[in-house]
Amino acid sequence: MFKGIIFDSDGVLVNSMPYHAKAWVDVFAEFGIDVTEEEIYEIEGSNHVGVINIFFEKAGRTPEPDMYDAILEKKRAHFMENNRAEVFEGMYECLRSLKGKFKLAVASGADRTIVTSLMDRFYPDIFDAIISGEDVQNGKPDPEPYNRAVEKLGLKKKDCLVVENAPLGVESAKNAGMYCVGIPTYLDGSELQEADIVLKDHSELIVYLSDLMRIDR
Which Gene3D superfamilies does UniProt cross-reference here (predicted)? Predict the structure, then answer.
């Protein structure tokens, strides 16, 4: 049934979102904007432009054009300095099994440097395409990230499955007209109701993906 699988990165492949959230909170504080980690989790999946716009607007401010790159650089530095992310148990072995049977891609809202560094470290030589938040004009929940991933894989949308853990990511996949599996990591599963199926945890996800190999092959 499916020929390609597209994964979100943070919270699906790598337990890295706590370090993203901490980095954003610290950087916004430098610009005089109070943000909680919970607020960051609620908009997980947005690229840096979206995140900056959301919280500047909440603060009643408008970011100057040259602030986007400056904030991104600071956020990236905070993340890299404090990052202690780990791969979710069993996911690397699962993706090694999927490799060669499906085309595999990542569609993340994080910046290119962070995404590629995490994938190179935890999932070397696994993915056929990686789409970062810097590779699109419109981040999640816009369908562009998943549309770009499908194009990179050279497949049709109906032939691709998306795995997401964030409401904006699920919305992005559904806006692209794609089948989406929800996996609650940092939010309750009820937040992912727009997904076609919501699994309990990564253990269930690994079983689900393993079953796909038997069904589709």
Answer: HAD superfamily/HAD-like, Putative phosphatase, domain 2
